[in-house]
Amino acid sequence: MISRQFPFERGLMWFRSDLRIYDNSALYRASTHCKEIASIFIACPDSWKLHNEGDVLVAFRMACLHELQAQLQVRNIPLYFLEVSTFSQVPQVLQEITQRLKIDALFANAEYPLNEQRRDNAVRDVLTKSGVEVEYFSDRTLLPPGSVRTGSGDPYKVFTPFKRALIQLCAESETKSLPAPRKIAPPDKGAYWPKWLALSEGKKLKQKMPGELSQYTINTVETGVVKGWKAGEKAAQKRLKVFSGLVSKYQSERDFPSLDSTSRLSPYLNCGAISIRQCVNMALNLNQGLWQGGNNGIACWISELIWREFYTHLLVDFPRLSKGEPFKEITDQIPWSYNEDRFACWSRGETGVPIVDAAMRQLNETAWMHNRLRMIVASFLTKNMLIDWRWGERYFMQHLLDADFASNNGGWQWTASTGTDAAPYFRVFNPYSQSQKFDPDGTFIRKYIPELSSLNNKEIHNPPPTEGYPKVICDVSAGRQRAIEVFANLK
Ligand SMILES: Cc1cc2nc3c(=O)[nH]c(=O)nc-3n(C[C@H](O)[C@H](O)[C@H](O)COP(=O)(O)OP(=O)(O)OC[C@H]3O[C@@H](n4cnc5c(N)ncnc54)[C@H](O)[C@@H]3O)c2cc1C
């Protein structure tokens, strides 16, 4: 019988990239609309592999799930875990699970890459037919993709007017954060939710998080730390608090990779251990409610958060971005290089250009790279070596802890000048002058390339032959010139 207070007797919260209990739209709705709630996470390792999601990303996600489970337990909300191989199996297993657990309604926060949208539509179709209500929420972005439009109703393709329109819409609505779900009253008699369920085809739904997963090495999960990054919502909140004391200097310091001057919240935002609204609200509280103006550092940080928003909205408006296609179709005519040896040197941080190599070593060693360096290494790969941006995009997806399809695709297409509102093709980053400007005394280079540590501050950016360090693998200025010509000749 459905109680008067709650429209649904039993709800199921389906966690994906929203691994937190505070300010989680779908979870909050489940808790206010259902008398009882269980939750589920479904791992799809074959689909994740196909999307180039790497070991570190998956290990971090699993470690966040561990923490989430403990938080949910306190509120009497069980978290079930299930592994299937691909997204295509999800509708059927959810149908079986909702029937077996007598679920009335499923709640989830929307995910935007094309295959994820297709999976969610299929789930909605199947469950609705079997009488289960399905509710998806817009939670990953400040405003739902598709809701920020030009006067003529088109999507924005340029960042600055998009930002202006988004700010105006946000200022009109509320960006308030939601509380955690209520503590669910324990059942009157006996255990209400089973500890595990045997499903068809030998699958098992369990409340115990696994110590391993097909296709992935996730043995770092137990410690809750992945490559030095502490997983989970509490760690994310702690980082936000620390950064609130640094944000006022963000604009002047954010481009220097040797300084710890950016938020390093990207891995948490990506797996949803923190919400975009919590980040914006921290900034607005410190800036007297101003989205623009006020403190330069805070306004600049808000602007960066809106770049994330811009790329996610573009992904929904332009499905071809999910299919490996460039935003500017004409750039598909570029005779990209597929030189595997050069690509391997770039990946390992052995190009002979110190700032590029130090950056790639930072990525390989810490699973994160500073934004200025992402632009420098992407420009070096796609312009100086003219290697297809999709190779770099894939490598980043496989190795970044914050690998996010929308922002990664946007960042690569911006740097390769194939994207919308991208870097003009004739403005190619010079890795040596970037190095002199943003790592003037070579502190960052010395940290990741100890072979060069004895060089002076001038030599370190473009070193003479040095034992143990490779010679530069390409002609940097000839490569730049060739890229400009190739782009200029596109018809
Ligand atoms: C080639 C390339 C690939 C990238 N791949 C990713 C990726 O896979 N995942 C990812 O989250 N970011 C990506 N970025 C954007 C940016 O480099 C990172 O978001 C940022 O370095 C993360 O560090 P932070 O959290 O300290 O950022 P902060 O400087 O503190 O910024 C706060 C947040 O704003 C967002 N943000 C900042 N800059 C950008 C940007 N240029 N584009 C989109 N969002 C931004 C991020 O969510 C970030 O956490 C990429 C950029 C480039 C040039």
In short:
By secondary structure, this protein is an alpha/beta fold. It is 44% helix and 9% strand. The protein folds into three domains: 1-140, 3-Layer(aba) Sandwich (Rossmann fold), CATH 3.40.50; 141-177 and 233-317, Serine Threonine Protein Phosphatase 5, Tetratricopeptide repeat; 329-488, Orthogonal Bundle (DNA Cyclobutane Dipyrimidine Photolyase, subunit A, domain 3), CATH 1.10.579.10.
Point out poorly predicted stretches: none
**Distance separating the two termini:** 67 Å
List the secondary-structure elements in sequence, H or E: EHEHHEHEHEHEEEEHHHHHHHHHHHHH
- State the CATH class of the largest domain: Mainly Alpha
Class by alpha and beta content: alpha/beta
Q: What proportion of the residues form beta strands (DSSP E)?
A: 5-15%
Question: Which strands sit side by side, in order, in the main sheet?
Answer: 3-2-1-4-5
CATH architecture of the largest domain: Orthogonal Bundle
The Rg value, from CA coordinates, equals: 24 Å
Distinct small molecules: flavin-adenine dinucleotide
The total tally of domains equals 3
Q: Give the overall silhouette.
A: globular
Number of strand segments? 9
Mean pLDDT comes to 95
Helix content: 40-55%
Number of helices: 19
Q: So, the CATH homologous superfamily of the largest domain?
A: DNA Cyclobutane Dipyrimidine Photolyase, subunit A, domain 3
Describe the fold and architecture.
The protein is built from 19 helices and 9 strands. The chain is α/β, with parallel strands linked by helices. The protein has 3 domains: 1-140, HUPs (Rossmann fold, 3-Layer(aba) Sandwich); 141-177 and 233-317, Serine Threonine Protein Phosphatase 5, Tetratricopeptide repeat; 329-488, DNA Cyclobutane Dipyrimidine Photolyase, subunit A, domain 3, CATH 1.10.579.10. The strands form 3 sheets. The chain has a 5-stranded parallel beta sheet, sandwiched between helices. Helix 10 (276-286) runs antiparallel to helix 11 (296-317) and helix 14 (371-384) packs across helix 19 (476-488). It is globular. The chain binds flavin-adenine dinucleotide (FAD). Flavin-adenine dinucleotide (FAD) binds at residues 254, 262-266, 269-270, 304-305, 307-308, 311, 371, 374-375, 378, 396, 400, 402-404, 407-408, 410-412, 415. Flavin-adenine dinucleotide binds at residues 254, 262-266, 269-270, 304-305, 307-308, 311, 371, 374-375, 378, 396, 400, 402-404, 407-408, 410-412, 415.
